[in-house]
Design goal:
Blueprint lengths: L5 E10 L2 E11 L4 E5 L6 H8 L7 E6 L2 E2 L5 H6 L2 E4 L11 H6 L8 H11 L1 H5 L10 H13 L5 E5 L7 H16 L3 E5 L3 H7 L2 E6 L2 E6 L6 H7 L5
Parallel strand pairs: 3-8, 3-9, 6-7, 7-8
Antiparallel strand pairs: 1-2, 1-4, 4-5, 9-10
Bound molecules: adenosine-5'-triphosphate.
Length: about 240
C-alpha cells in the first residue's frame, strides 16, 4: 500500500489549558476523498487548523506524503501541495470574480491557467466574471473560493463545511464538483455537517467526537444509526 498523502498519529491540541484534540489518528490515502463527520464541538475544525499549520499541536505527529511536517509553516505546507478552503467564504467581496482569480496569479500562477482551471470546473463563474464577488449568492461565492484554491494545483485539499448556510441543492452541486476534483487526482479531506451528501462522494469516512476519531470505514460501513445519534439528526 502506498504512503498516505496525510497521516495524523496521536495528535493532541489545546486552546489554553483546555485540551480539544485528545489523540487523533487519521489517514487520507492518496487520491481518496475522506469525509470527517461528527457533532459540533468534536474538534474537526481544530484538526484542520493543526493539519494546515494554523495551530500548533501539543503532541503527536502529522505526516504529509510520508514527511513529518512538524514546525512547518502554512507557506511550507502550501509548497508541499496542501490547500485549505476554510469555513466561510474566503473571497474579496469588493473585487469582481475575475479580479479575485487574478490575485492567484500574484502567487505565481499564470493568469490563463487560473482562468482555464476556474471556468472549466465552474462555468457559472465565467458568466459572472465581471460581477462583484460580494453580490453573488452564497453558493457562487463558495464556487469562487474553491476555484481559487484549485488554481494552486493542490495535492491535498482540506474543505471545512463547504455547505455552511447553503441550500441542499447547491450543496449537492458543490459536492458533484468535489467528486470531479477528486477524479483529477487531488486527495480531499472534508469536514461536513451534511453527512449523507459528503458520504455520497467519499471513499472513506471518519467520525470525530470528544477530540478523537471514534469510527472509520467506507461510507456504507459507517453505521447509519450511530451517525444519526452522533450527528444529532444533521445527516
Ligand atoms: N479559538 C478557540 N478558543 C477556545 N476554544 C475553542 C476555540 N475554537 C474552538 N474551541 C473549542 O474547541 C472545541 C472544538 O471546536 P471545533 O470548532 O474544532 O469543533 P468542530 O467539530 O469543528 O465543531 P463545529 O462543527 O461546530 O465547527 C469546542 O469545544 C470549541 O468551543
Amino acid at each position: 500500500m502506498s504512503v498516505p498523502i496525510l497521516e495524523c498519529v496521536d495528535v493532541h491540541a489545546a486552546y489554553g489549558r483546555i485540551e480539544v484534540l485528545r489523540g487523533v489518528d487519521l489517514k487520507v490515502p492518496r487520491g481518496a476523498v475522506v469525509a470527517l463527520l461528527g457533532p459540533n464541538g468534536g474538534g474537526k475544525s481544530t484538526l484542520l487548523k493543526v493539519i494546515s499549520g494554523q495551530m500548533e499541536k501539543t503532541s503527536g505527529h502529522v505526516h504529509m506524503a510520508g514527511v513529518n511536517v512538524h514546525g512547518a509553516s502554512a507557506d511550507d505546507l502550501a509548497r508541499l501541495g496542501l490547500t485549505t478552503i476554510p469555513e466561510g467564504r474566503s473571497v474579496f467581496p469588493n473585487l469582481t470574480v475575475e479580479e479575485n482569480l487574478l490575485l492567484m496569479s500574484y502567487a505565481g500562477v499564470a493568469p490563463d491557467k487560473v482562468f482555464d482551471t476556474a471556468y472549466s470546473y465552474f462555468p457559472r463563474l465565467h458568466e459572472r466574471r465581471y460581477q462583484l464577488a460580494g453580490t453573488m449568492s452564497g453558493g457562487e461565492q463558495q464556487m469562487l473560493a474553491m476555484a481559487r484554491a484549485l488554481t494552486s494545483d493542490p495535492a491535498l485539499l482540506l474543505l471545512d463545511e463547504l455547505s455552511m448556510g447553503l441550500a441542499p441543492l447547491i450543496v449537492d452541486e458543490l459536492y458533484e464538483t468535489v467528486a470531479k476534483i477528486a477524479e483529477s487526482g487531488v486527495s480531499i479531506l472534508c469536514v461536513e455537517q451534511f453527512a449523507r451528501t459528503a458520504l455520497r462522494v467519499s471513499d472513506y469516512a471518519a467520525v470525530m467526537t470528544g477530540g478523537r476519531v471514534v469510527a472509520t470505514g467506507e461510507p456504507n460501513e459507517i453505521n447509519e444509526i450511530m451517525a444519526d445519534v452522533i450527528l444529532g439528526g444533521a445527516a
